[in-house]
Amino acid sequence: DTTASAAPAAKKPAVPDAQTVTEVRHYTDRLFSFRCTRPASMRFRSGEFVMIGLMAMNEKTGKEKPLLRAYSIASPSWDEELEFYSIKVPDGPLTSKLQHIKVGDEIILRPKPVGTLVHDALLPGKRLWFFATGTGFAPFASLLREPQTFEDYDEIIITHTCREAGELTYGRELIEELKTDELLNEVIGEGFWKKIKYYPTTTREESARMGRITDLMRSGEAFAELGVEPLNPATDRAMICGNLAFNLELKEMLEGYGLEEGANSDPKHYVVEKAFLD
Ligand code: A2P
Known about the structure:
CATH architecture of the largest domain: 3-Layer(aba) Sandwich
Number of domains: 2
Mean pLDDT: 93
Shape: globular
Order of helices and strands: HEEEEEHEEHHEHHEHHEHE
Largest sheet: 6 strands, antiparallel
Number of strands: 11
Strand order of the largest sheet: 4-3-6-1-2-5
Low-confidence stretches: 1-6
Bound molecules: adenosine-2'-5'-diphosphate
């Protein structure tokens, strides 16, 4: 058959698994978010992560090859685009370049979502806690726009600890926007966002609430301010996503309250995932 070879060669994409950037927002000199097109066939569960990146020169071979890192998907599973929330590390191999992306640029996105911060890994409960530091808010940005979160729980408590006040902006705006989200209000029922209690704290810049969430829980201050009892395996479920030290410390605290770690194949009371660091 000669017709095929006679046809003009299809335009080769500049990068493998290419998706096109549709929006970029910068929050501080350390944080930005961006949106890109979503592969038509890609399915995922809100809270999962994928490998994304750019082509980069390999110093040893002198050849360009994909430089990829794990990124939580910050958009919900029903969104036709994908959203990511990222740190900018000045000498980070990927983020030093990724922070300069513009609308129309291509990124690499391997369409194989995985992860443990999913509803399937938790047993039914009454109250769901999201514990985040820094860019660890990303998977919760997905889950907060997922109707199931509000269908499955009576109350959702989001704690977010950051160094500086400006680092809370992405999360605060997202939670604020839920109130006027027509689709979610229609699907879940008006006023669903009233189930949310938001508890932001900063550690290195003055803000309304200072301190690490772990310390605020230990002293009992956080529970008193939120008007809830400390976590209890009979009612409370939790998802943790932050830096390594935070994850370990909080994990130990939750175990102390009697909660057990769940997995996709063995749902229990809480799950943990590490936030991306370049
Ligand atoms: P701190 O400023 O006291 O270190 P980072 O940007 O380094 O990932 O940190 C994000 C936030 O997480 C910071 O506010 C930091 O507080 C806080 N943090 C770091 N380690 C822990 C921990 N073990 N427990 C609670 N919060 C932590």
